Records
---
Amino acid sequence: MDWQKGERSQNVEVDSGGGGGGGGGFGGGRMGIGGLIILAILGWVFFKNPMALLNQDNTQPGAYAPSGQPAQVDPQQKDFVSAILGSTEKTWSDIFSGMGRTYVDPKLELFSGGVNTACGAASTAVGPFYCPGDQKVYLDLDFFRELDTRFHASGDFARAYVIAHEVGHHVQNQLGIFDKVAQMQRQGARMEGADGLSVRQELQADCFAGVWANRTQQRLQWLQPGDVESALNAASQIGDDTLQREARGTVVPDSFTHGTSAQRVKWFKTGFQSGDIQQCNTFSGAL
């Protein structure tokens, strides 16, 4: 992936170590369902209700306390993140403009160890996530190493897919999908499970990442042989069924939060092949 071709974003921030954000943990409904990899790393392994995992108070053990030191970020990695985020800004601004709407760019904050956000405190263990409360994507660059080692999903485009997926949640927020999901939940729709709202929202974010990949490739021609396969492999490696099978040797569909490996691949490919967000309606029909 010739990521150097990407437009650089001015919205990449580095955690100063001073804390920021605040709030009483990831609960209280402020996260929506979020569709975060925090749910994957915790929920997939421990088979717990993902919303219960988020309903924590900052005073409980494990909550992040600011170190007072700024995050240590490699300049080249920051430049990579800036290039990918910049490409998403251009792509989604164009798409929203075509719909007669204005796209508001998200911020992306790089952190180390942990971070305080408008959705509460999070440690490195939660992985990348999007907080609708402050419209920010949060990323500890150590997660890229985990992609290589734990998830066996190496390559720049696999890393770009992770960022694009989280930006996909920001797109959902901009389109009012978070609010609609919250309304469906209040009306009794189930969050977790193979057919639940969480899975449907996650798969839509995968589809939106595919749309970004399609539109950006048309504009920049920056993909190289094997890049698409690396993104599809990343999507496959972080499917609910794959991670549950690796962690416990069994698969529990009732605890799914993100979708199976096959579903994640399918919906990324749907977005990538079509380049059309109208093809990303994961809330209607079979997945």
---
Amino acid sequence: MTAGFKSKVLLISMFGMMAAPLSGRSGVEADILEEVNFLRSNPSAFARELDDLRDRFDGDILLGEGDGPDFTTHEGPRAVSEAARELRRRRAVNTLMPSDLLARAAADHVRAQGASGQTGHYSNGKGPGQRVKARGGNVYVGEVIVYNYTSAQNAVQQLVVDDGVPDRGHRKLLFLPQYRYAGVACGSHRQWRNMCVIVLAQTRDGSPIMPPKGE
């Protein structure tokens, strides 16, 4: 997605079907942004974490750590292996800075959808670009959503592995170097226990980057 794409990359991950909710977490949004930046700045190190993840499979079931819940997956460990191989070929890209405006737009979606139990990129008739615009920004944004995660690391791993998503669109979106800012909001979800929305943009408010005068 570049400056003209108007929230056309809208992606959702539901890697786990049996994950338990987290409660009493503080700073989960900051933790997830930190994990995304770890992915972008050091993909080979993130790949090593996926190696550990792959070793926890029993068939297509991802076994929980300690007393944690198990996950039912579509593709099993082969999707994790594929993700790790690709990350080892990727170069680092710039890290993302936090944007309060993008985070407020993400939080609007969490509040509405968490209460309704719906999934997807629309709530109250608004998609991500419309939500950012309602907060005073512009519509040139991308968005990924993860449901039913157990930690910040698990949330980003879901998006990177992209189990059951043939084009691995979440992974591609998280690596776009055009993006410079992100707003993250997480909360409870009526059906999927919890959810986290990440809105990404080239600018702090979702406005396009204009070319220099004379070009």
---
Amino acid sequence: MEITPVAYFHSPFPSKFGLPRQSGLSTNLTGHIIFEKKYRDPSALHGLEGFDYLWLLWEFSGNRRAKKSLTVRPPRLGGNVQMGVFATRSPFRPNNLGLSAVKIDRIDLQTAHGPVIHVLGADLMDGTPIYDIKPYLRDADAYPEARSGFADTVDWQPLEVDFPVRLRQGLTAEQVETLMETLRLDPRPPYQEEPERIYGMPFDGRDIRFRISNGRLTVVEVV
């Protein structure tokens, strides 16, 4: 089977670094879906206004040349424990396919790019190819009592974030809120623990530079 994108995702994150590791973790993170020309017909979205969430089937396009393995090291386990790739949501997969549930913010049927779906909480970087879109069904897609394997055994604590007001100039209140929420998730690779290291996270045309020590992230510069 050959598949081609039906749409592309647009996000403030131009690269993988800093992206939430799962959809829904950064609830204020905005993004939008622009369809390829052959799918820019409002009739293709008829009925979608009645749903709150979507499933996106997409490609880990930043990993096309990455080495593949049958075992991976999940960040949830600190990046030091091997698990089978099919027992994880690792982005390093045999066919580079991702699956995310995202919240519909609004749908604009008439724009210069045809119908556009605006969503919240996606874990896709800018330019990500989307291969299919399906509505999320509450009765069929949610199993609140289901076990979650090793994710049930590991407690995760968000970071405290110090984002000085003087560094927020030029950012909207919405951008600041999104950044705070995203930075709490700890953008670093899980195996890195270097208190003096300055990390840079690209976000909406800016470079957010920070360091992390003892569970606290401090933004030191916005370029």
